Every structure is written in structure tokens, then in C-alpha cells.
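Journal club side-thread
Mid-discussion, someone asked how the predicted structure for our own chain would compare to the paper's figures. Pasting it here so we can look after the session.
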Amino acid sequence: MTTAPAPTRPSAAARPASTLPPAAFDWVRDLVYREAAIVLEPGKEYLVEARLLPLSRQAGKDSVGAYVESLRTSRDSREAARVVDALTTNETSWFRDGSPFRALSDVLVPEILASGRADRTLRIWSAACSSGQEPYTVAMSLTDKVKAAGWRLDIFATDISEEMLTRARAGRYSQLEVNRGLPAPLLVKHFSRRGTEWEAAPELRSSIRFQRMNLAAPFPPMQPFDIVLLRNVLIYFDTATKRSILSRVAGVMRPESHLLLGGAETTLGVDERWDRVLVAGAPVHKPAAQLGRRGA
């Protein structure tokens, strides 16, 4: 699923005061928690107002408060889903944080390819994939290596936002978006110019399957994964939800598989049934032996 609003935000002194009525903020908070299990703490009124302002203008309302009030009375489920999308869409970029992708390419994946496993399919789950930069980064990093070893690459990319998934499936990005971390040689190799946008090559897109999924809800049936990228999303959930997600993620991982979290995330103090090791500068988590393949 797409994550909640990015943690970087202007200081209280720098951001404008919110005019969102408390009742409207509370209604939005309840909606987002109910639909996505994401916690919007008090003090995020300014962010809610900024994210919903475009929707309120499209609806012809003169304020975000009036827009929210109209939703409260109309019970328009489709418009409510747009609110959840707006408040669970995070910024993303190519090769974000760097070290996790070096760990994948230089250590973790070569070990798996050398395992001699009969099932020669490398399965990777990119959870909370947003507009697709992460799964496409994984594909660019691994396609040649996996193909040379005679294996097949299968990337499963999920998000809670249908709008983001539509963008990700299209594989088209603006010049501004490709400038955010995509090296020029990889841009030229894996993308073609389409008007003012860049489109991912068919080979790159063919290894990725996109599907809507709410991480806070029960998972659909899935084949076990070798690697799970659950990055920069757990920080937006309460502890009980984090623990439930981690347990269910462990249930869809191979015994020898690897979990990569975001730089500000950890299993410590949440679920102690994980082992943590440092690989190429990146913290990598593995289900402890006693955890087995159990789900929540």
C-alpha cells in the first residue's frame, strides 16, 4: 500500500495555521484509520487540509471543511476512497536510500541464484509501491543478473491506492520524476521518450505484477517470497498493526528469505521474532527459526 504522508514536514512556525474545523479533522482521522489503519496524530490538520484542497476545489467547495462536511452527510464511498488515497500517498524516488539495492544486487540475490534451487524463479514483493519507482528500480538492478543465471524474475508490487497503481502500471514518468535518483545510463537503457514523459521498456514491465492490497487487512493467497521490501510504511501504523503485519509477512516468506525495512523502521520493540543482520550497509531482517511459516 502507499504510505501515509511523508515524515518530513515544515516546522510549526513555518507552516500556515490550519482552518480545518476539529470535527472535520476527526472525521478524516477516523476514515483513514478505519480504511488503512494509518494514524493521523493531532497536529496534522495542516497536512490534511493541504492534501484535500485539490479535491475540495474539484468538488466546487469553497473550503476543505465544507468538502469534508459534504462527505459526512452524503456518505459517498467513492469520494471517501479518494480522500484515503490523497492521505496515504507518499513521495517516492529511484534507488531510495541506496544501500538496500546494493545489498540486493551484490549479496542477497547472488546467494539465492547460487543456491541450486529447483524452482528457478526469484520472487520479490514490493509492498507500498506507490507510483512504481521501487519495483522498477528492483527490475533494473536485477533483470540482467537473474536472466544470466537462467532464472526468472517475478516482482509482485502492491499498494492501497488504485490511482497510484494505474500510474505504476503505465510506467510513465515526467522529467522531474526521473531526475529524482534515476542515473542517466539506466534511463537511456530502460526507458523511451514518449512526448514529455519517459516510458519503461516492455521487458522491464513484464517482470512486475501490480495489485491493490491493504497491508492492514488479511493477505490474499500468495506464493512464498525470497525478498520482501516493506519500506517506509510501518512507521505510520500503531504497534499492534505493525506486529500483525510483520507476522503475516513472515507467513509468506521462505525460511531463508530476507525482509528490508525503511531506514527509520525496525522490528525491535515490535516483534522480537526476527533476526537482524547488516548486509552491504543495509539492515536486513530474517524470520527467526522458531517463527516458521506461521501467519497472523
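Post-session note: The CA atoms of residues 109 and 142 lie 8 Å apart.
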